[in-house]
């Protein structure tokens, strides 16, 4: 039996970048008939600013424009996530620092920047919250490339 992976995408508030990454990755997994290789695909934030909220309407609109369904509610990362997920992939250095600071010793999660899987080597997925729609569109392109790069890294493509 092949390995089933659990992937968690993380940004600050879990309303812009990480729910977009979750949606794009889950959609790509489904489109490529790889669902049996994943136990769980989720997203969370390092802060609890938006717990329970739907993604930012601009993030959802960008995904919908590309026929990618979005279905998530914001939540905060928990210490249990570090044992539950194989990969915790964050959007920038601040998230990475926060995650490494709270990661319990001996936990299984490989914590890294999601952008490390971008074949264009654009490692940082910048927060588009205070900008216009072009920032969300740029993020969409980044997370799409990084999603494919992750699937290649896992040996699934």
TrEMBL record:
CDD domains: LMWPTP
Keywords annotated in UniProt: Cytoplasm, Hydrolase, Protein phosphatase
Lineage: Eukaryota, Fungi, Fungi incertae sedis, Mucoromycota, Mucoromycotina
Keyword Hydrolase: yes
Domain of life per record: Eukaryota
Location of this chain's protein in the cell: Cytoplasm
Species in which this protein is naturally found: Mortierella isabellina
A Pfam family: LMWPc
Active-site residues annotated for this sequence: 11, 17, 127
Record's GO cellular component terms: cytoplasm
The keyword Disulfide bond belongs to this UniProt entry's keyword annotation: no
Domain (Phosphotyrosine protein phosphatase I): residue spans on this chain: 5-153
Chief location category: cytoplasm
Catalytic activity: O-phospho-L-tyrosyl-[protein] + H2O = L-tyrosyl-[protein] + phosphate
GO MF annotation terms: acid phosphatase activity; non-membrane spanning protein tyrosine phosphatase activity
Protein name per the record: Phosphotyrosine protein phosphatase I domain-containing protein
Membership in a protein family: Belongs to the low molecular weight phosphotyrosine protein phosphatase family.
């Amino acid at each position: 039996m092949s390995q089933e992976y659990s992937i968690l995408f993380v940004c600050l508030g879990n309303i812009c970048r990480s729910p977009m990454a979750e949606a794009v990755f889950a959609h790509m997994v489904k489109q490529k008939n790889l669902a049996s290789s994943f136990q769980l695909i989720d997203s969370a934030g390092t802060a609890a600013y938006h717990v329970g909220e739907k993604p930012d309407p601009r993030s959802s609109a960008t995904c919908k424009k590309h026929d990618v369904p979005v279905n998530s509610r914001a939540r905060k990362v928990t210490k249990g996530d570090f044992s539950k997920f194989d990969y915790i992939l964050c959007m920038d250095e601040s998230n990475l620092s926060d995650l490494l600071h709270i990661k319990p010793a001996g936990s299984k999660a490989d914590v890294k920047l999601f952008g490390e899987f971008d074949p264009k080597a654009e490692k940082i997925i910048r927060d588009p919250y205070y900008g216009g729609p072009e920032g969300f569109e740029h993020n969409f392109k980044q997370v799409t490339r990084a999603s494919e790069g992750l699937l290649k890294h896992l040996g699934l493509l």
